[in-house]
């Protein structure tokens, strides 16, 4: 009886794929889980494994053709492959091969979890275990890195790691098999040796030379007069995908990327090149770079500035900080005041809390405030949800919790999606003035800066006051200059007269 090979589920937003290349031809012997064909989507490449051992009987779809999820790719004839794969195997060897099948009920697959609606792929980081290691339930196996956050994958059960399928650096999609754990414990002696054999074979595939562009990507490269070395590939083994070309064309990055590859590298002396270090950008850093550049290319971005006397807030903090911390269990910082002031201003100037969707403007009747947090892996923006309905104490507690999760790498997708406005505090690093870049698709971002004593004219006298520059970057397509200036003035007024926050003025 023939076994069908079909297109697997490729992600929530992916409904079709292009046949990139077949690894086998009709008549070839195949074994279960051996890669048969590579599919290319606009986001990722996927290798489809053989569902059973046997002989590849037929191929239904040729390279370069586009297929939908669930479409028939080919068929495997049962029996012949098993006989051909090990005709001279000794009886003892055959028994060893069938042992895992007997213990199949105790083999637990560890697969890539779903990481959120907008996340369709992840990059495999460093493995914390190796084949043969005994693990306990909830032990960390591997870290997956998406374009938004890193996620640790725990062991679902206690047992022995008998197989590691995904290598460090591989790109995987939700549902992709990462490794297998034998929960019976019997594999501690036999399975590790058997499972470790395929490892050397898979390593070269992950670290070998870059693959040619996928068919759809090749067509787009030709249409845009680009070469493959001008586009950074995100597929397996560095393959250039259709999505990579689209992103390069949209951002204009292709022309910029071509310069470092050619002219600037030529005059580098050998001794200088030996002292250089080339490090691959993490997916998080790649996404940060792409999103920031896309924001500049898409929005009509403009920045308006003001300054605020932080004296009243500082006096209030000094007077109540001990009592505040004792009652609420969290320190009274500046972010609670700024978040509350921003929420008040957003209510008055709703355009700053809106976003553009095609030819429509979507006004948000809630305030989900993103708070930019710098980590050793890059900038992340966790979101304080419904901040307009929170007290200053609740805001401080939530920001504290999100900041700790960010530093520990524990942020999930739910923590970083849905923001309507962002606050970035460059002052903690000593920045005196800057122009923040929008966090698309949001229409506004507030930049906080260092508090510095400066001479100010107050009631006809020169006095020294703790001043902070404020910067509001906004999308001029939706926010007018008058609205932007008024918004920043309202934030300034709330901070210089904190009673306004209490009285909702």
Automatic annotation (TrEMBL):
EC numbers on record: 2.3.1.61
Pathway participation: Amino-acid degradation; L-lysine degradation via saccharopine pathway; glutaryl-CoA from L-lysine: step 6/6
Keyword S-adenosyl-L-methionine appears in the UniProt entry: no
Protein purpose: E2 component of the 2-oxoglutarate dehydrogenase (OGDH) complex which catalyzes the second step in the conversion of 2-oxoglutarate to succinyl-CoA and CO(2).
Protein name listed in UniProt: Dihydrolipoyllysine-residue succinyltransferase component of 2-oxoglutarate dehydrogenase complex
Pfam families referenced in this protein's UniProt entry, alphabetically: 2-oxoacid_dh (PF00198), Biotin_lipoyl (PF00364), E3_binding (PF02817)
An example Gene Ontology molecular-function term: dihydrolipoyllysine-residue succinyltransferase activity
Organism this protein belongs to: Roseibium litorale
Enzyme class, spelled out: transferase
Peripheral subunit-binding (PSBD) domain ranges (all copies): 212-249
Reactions mediated catalytically: N(6)-[(R)-dihydrolipoyl]-L-lysyl-[protein] + succinyl-CoA = N(6)-[(R)-S(8)-succinyldihydrolipoyl]-L-lysyl-[protein] + CoA
InterPro entries in the record: 2-oxoA_DH_lipoyl-BS (IPR003016), 2-oxoacid_dehydrogenase (IPR050537), 2-oxoacid_DH_actylTfrase (IPR001078), Biotin_lipoyl (IPR000089), CAT-like_dom_sf (IPR023213), E3-bd_dom_sf (IPR036625), PSBD (IPR004167), Single_hybrid_motif (IPR011053)
Cofactor: (R)-lipoate
UniProt KW keywords: Acyltransferase, Lipoyl, Transferase, Tricarboxylic acid cycle
Gene name linked to the record: odhB
Signal peptide region: none
Domain Lipoyl-binding: 2-77, 107-182
Entry's family note: Belongs to the 2-oxoacid dehydrogenase family.
């Amino acid at each position: 009886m023939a076994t069908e090979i079909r297109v697997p589920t490729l992600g929530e937003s992916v409904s079709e794929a292009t046949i990139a290349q077949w690894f086998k031809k009709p008549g070839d012997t195949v074994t279960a889980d051996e890669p048969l064909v590579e599919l290319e989507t606009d986001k990722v490449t996927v290798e489809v494994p053989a569902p059973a051992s046997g002989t590849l009987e037929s191929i239904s779809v040729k390279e370069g053709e586009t297929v939908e999820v669930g479409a028939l790719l080919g068929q495997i004839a049962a029996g012949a492959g098993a006989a051909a794969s090990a005709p001279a195997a000794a009886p003892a060897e055959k028994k060893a091969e069938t042992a895992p099948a007997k213990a199949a009920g105790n083999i637990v697959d560890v697969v890539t979890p779903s990481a959120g609606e907008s996340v369709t792929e992840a990059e495999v980081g460093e493995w914390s275990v190796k084949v043969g290691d005994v693990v306990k339930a909830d032990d960390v196996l591997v870290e997956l890195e998406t374009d938004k956050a890193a996620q640790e994958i725990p062991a679902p059960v206690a047992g022995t790691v008998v197989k590691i399928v995904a290598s460090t650096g591989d790109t995987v999609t939700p549902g992709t098999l990462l490794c297998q754990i034998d929960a019976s414990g019997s594999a501690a002696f036999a399975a590790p040796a058997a499972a470790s054999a395929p490892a050397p074979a898979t390593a070269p595939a992950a670290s070998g030379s870059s693959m040619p562009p996928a068919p759809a990507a090749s067509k787009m490269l030709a249409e845009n007069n680009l070469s493959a070395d001008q586009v950074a590939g995100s597929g397996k083994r560095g393959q250039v995908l259709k999505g990579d070309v689209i992103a390069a064309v949209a951002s204009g990055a292709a022309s910029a990327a071509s310069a470092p590859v050619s002219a600037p590298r030529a005059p580098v002396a050998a001794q200088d090149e030996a002292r250089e270090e080339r490090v691959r950008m993490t997916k998080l850093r790649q996404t940060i770079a792409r999103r920031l550049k896309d924001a500049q290319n898409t929005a009509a971005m403009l920045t308006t500035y003001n300054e605020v006397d932080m004296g009243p807030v500082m006096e209030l903090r000094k007077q109540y900080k001990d009592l505040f911390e004792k009652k609420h269990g969290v320190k009274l910082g500046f972010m609670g005041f700024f978040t509350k002031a921003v929420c008040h201003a957003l209510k008055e100037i709703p355009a700053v809390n809106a976003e553009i969707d095609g030819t429509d403007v979507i006004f948000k009747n809630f305030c989900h405030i993103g708070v930019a947090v710098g980590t050793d892996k890059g900038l992340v923006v966790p979101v304080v949800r419904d901040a307009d309905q929170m007290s200053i104490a609740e805001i401080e507690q939530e920001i504290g919790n999100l900041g700790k999760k960010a530093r520990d790498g524990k942020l999930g997708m739910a923590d970083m999606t849905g923001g309507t406005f962002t606050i970035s505090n460059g002052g903690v690093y000593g920045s005196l003035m800057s122009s923040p870049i929008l966090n698309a698709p949001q229409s506004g971002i507030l930049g906080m800066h260092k508090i510095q004593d400066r001479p100010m004219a107050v009631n006809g006298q020169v006095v020294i006051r703790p001043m902070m520059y404020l910067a509001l970057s906004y999308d001029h397509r939706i926010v007018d200059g008058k609205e932007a200036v008024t918004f920043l003035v309202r934030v300034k007024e709330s901070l210089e007269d904190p009673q306004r926050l209490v009285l909702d003025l």
